[in-house]
Amino acid sequence: MKLRLAASGRGPSALYHPNGRFRRQSGHRMSELCCADSPTLCVPEVIGFHSGVPLGVDDEFIKGRDMADTEISELEREIFELTARLTELRKSSTGDEVQDYTFATLDGETSLLRMFGDKNQLLLIHNMGQACRYCTLWADGFNGFLIHLESVMSVVLVSKDPPDLQRQFANSREWRFRLASHGGGEYITEQTVIDGADNMPGAVVYQRDGNKITRKNSCAFGPGDIYCSMWSLLGLAGLGESDWTPQYAYWQRPDKMDDGGANLI
Q1: Residue 129 structural domain
Q2: Looking at residue 247, what DSSP letter applies?
Q3: Do residues 128 and 45 share a domain?
Q4: Bridge partner residues of 205 (DSSP)
Q5: Which residues fall within 8 angstroms of residue 125, CB to CB, at 6 or more apart?
């Protein structure tokens, strides 16, 4: 039985069961919602999903929130519903057949078909290379999800950088991705995520049926998108692209070195 977020008449969001309708259950110390078709299933009401309002607050507190909070709640609901709709559309997408492109790796030449391994779906992350701080931010985030992603599909990060530079930079970031270089050639020109931009960051999911490869779905990356959770978390603080720029590192060398500073690079 699955629960998902939905708008509530009382708060910004609530949990509901897709096959039933939640109702308030009275007589409890903490507000609860119960599934109408399963009276024994009760879950705490999620109040203040975006603002951290404590569970169990009374109705007067909720009603007293300002208009901005109400608008935020509505936008969160709309985004949730639109995201679900987008997923359904992508699920039904069949895509176009593509050729079996070749790539360079530290172990020699490989192909798009070989990248699938034992999976029927392949996620290729289009990274601009080690000279892009934003691409590095996206990859840092994906690296944390890698074991989860690889449970359902193969994942490879590709860029124009040569394989040795790819590996050196990946090691410096502690990335665990499989890596391959398109060298700025035929693959990225024909499989770009935005027409006319041959080194645009993004991702493509390919589907395999025997030796046939189809491009199922793709997306482009950019500040504020849904593919990097950093922007959503910054948004909670009211910060956006104009307020923050990713860096390779945030440590700053002290003005005075306690070890004398000899041979400092």
Answers
A1: 96-220
A2: -
A3: no
A4: 123, 217
A5: 138, 139, 142, 155, 156, 157, 158, 177, 203
Task: Check whether residue 12 and residue 39 sit in a common domain.
Answer: yes
The answer to the question of residue 245 being in a domain is no
Compute the mean pLDDT over every residue in the chain, rounded to the nearest whole number: 83
Are residues 105 and 186 part of one domain?
A: yes
> What are 106's two structure tokens?
């530290």
C-beta separation of 103 from 116 below 8 A: no
Interval 131-173: pLDDT, tens: 999 999 999 999 999 999 999 999 999 999 999 999 999 999 9
CA dihedral of 76, 78, 79, 81, whole degrees rounded to 10: 120
Query: How confident is the model over 166-194, as pLDDT tens digits?
Result: 999 999 999 999 999 999 999 999 999 99
Radius of gyration of the chain (CA): 24
Residues 215 and 111 placed together within one structural domain of the fold: yes
Residue 22 tokens read as: 């939640």
Query: To which residue do tokens 């665990």 refer?
Result: 176
- Assigned domain for 27 exists: yes
The SS3 call for residue 87 is helix
pLDDT reported for residue 196: 87
Which residue type does 132 have? Answer: C
Q: Which of 47-51, 162-166, 213-217 has the lowest mean pLDDT?
A: 47-51
pTM for this one?
0.74
Q: Of 91, 125, 142, which residue sits at a domain end? A: 91
Q: Is residue 140 located within the same domain as residue 163?
A: yes
Longest dimension (CA), the chain: 73
